[in-house]
Write a structure and sequence with these properties.
The protein is of the alpha/beta class and about 270 residues long. The chain has 8 helices and 11 strands. It has helices spanning about 50-65, 70-80, 95-110, 120-130, 165-170, 190-195, 230-235, 245-255; strands at about 15, 20, 25-30, 35, 85-90, 115-120, 135-140, 150-160, 170-180, 210-225, 260-270. The strands form 2 sheets. The chain has an 8-stranded mixed beta sheet, sandwiched between helices. Strands 1-2-3 form a 3-stranded antiparallel beta sheet, with no helix packed on it. A hairpin with a 2-residue loop joins β1 and β2 (about 20). α1 (about 50-65) crosses α7 (about 230-235) and α2 (about 70-80) packs across α3 (about 95-110). The protein starts with 13 loop residues before the first strand and ends with a strand.
């Protein structure tokens, strides 16, 4: 039996060889790269989410360990909520850096869990599957999660869009939600070096309907010893690169070294009882 549900009729899939089939006969093949495409969009050739360049940049930068303090903080929170038999869903898993580390940490702690990830970027899902084949992966929207009501114990939402109503639907009562997003002056020195008028990130309210905020941590740490290769990878991780003028890209290319600060907000929630 698969964790995922059919995007057409919402019935849970049964796995048959390399396909997921629901009771109504809707069939979705599992790609050879290890994920199933459950996105419903017009045009089979339409691409979604991060492209190969962004995925490669993120993989290289994260693998170098620069964001390990954030990875460790998220993992510590999730492990605190985990217990044998629970289900973890990373809603917006990207290339799997945080998801795979969490799964390994839970396994090393002797906690048996099932870990799944969804996202809209095929290239990111392929990278995630290559990082850890033990993560169940589907191309799917955060606003239409292919999972049954109350089927998730711990939900991660890191640097991705969020949908409080959909998160509340799939989480069990008392289930944990862990969100991460950039702080106001995240990578400020990088922005100042590239943009004529750098801007602070806007922080929305942390309050979510249907959830109680348990904790908020403002995490700040320096990023040092970055040469041209690391600077370029850092800049291409988010969509900065595509939104930057040629003049800004030239200023980026001229940077030989950089020291900047990472700033994140890590918010921990509990789903309220109905």
């Amino acid at each position: 039996m698969s964790f995922f549900t059919c995007p057409i009729c919402k019935k849970r899939f049964i796995r048959q060889n390399q396909s997921l089939v629901c009771p109504n006969g809707h069939c979705f093949d599992i790609a050879k790269q290890g994920y199933v495409n459950l996105l419903r969009s017009r045009g089979a050739a339409r691409r979604h989410g991060d492209d190969k360049m962004m995925v490669a940049a993120r993989t290289a930068f994260l693998n170098a360990g620069y964001y390990n303090p954030l990875r460790d903080a998220v993992t510590e929170l999730a492990v605190r909520h985990a217990k044998d038999g629970c289900v973890v869903l990373d809603a917006g898993c990207g290339e799997g850096f945080y998801t795979a580390f969490l799964r390994a940490a839970l396994e090393n702690a002797g906690i048996s869990v099932s870990v799944y990830g969804i996202g809209v970027s095929r290239d990111a899902l392929i990278a995630c599957a290559a990082r850890d084949s033990g993560i169940g992966l589907a191309a799917a929207s955060i606003s239409d999660i292919p999972a049954e009501n109350g089927s998730v114990d711990i939900l991660l939402n890191l640097f991705a869009p969020y949908d409080a109503a959909e998160f509340a639907r799939v989480l069990k009562p008392g289930g944990a939600l862990i969100r991460v997003f950039p702080g106001k002056r995240h990578l400020w020195e990088l922005k100042a070096a590239v943009y004529t008028t750098p801007y602070e990130n806007v922080i929305d309210t942390l309050e979510l309907d249907g959830f109680s905020l348990l904790s908020r941590a403002d995490l700040r740490f320096p990023l040092t010893r970055m040469g041209k290769e690391q600077i370029e990878a850092l800049f291409k991780m988010p969509p900065y690169y595509y939104k930057t003028s040629r003049e800004g890209q030239a200023r980026l290319a001229a940077l030989q070294t950089l020291r900047t600060n990472a700033e994140f907000i890590v918010a921990e929630y509990r789903k309220d009882a109905p």
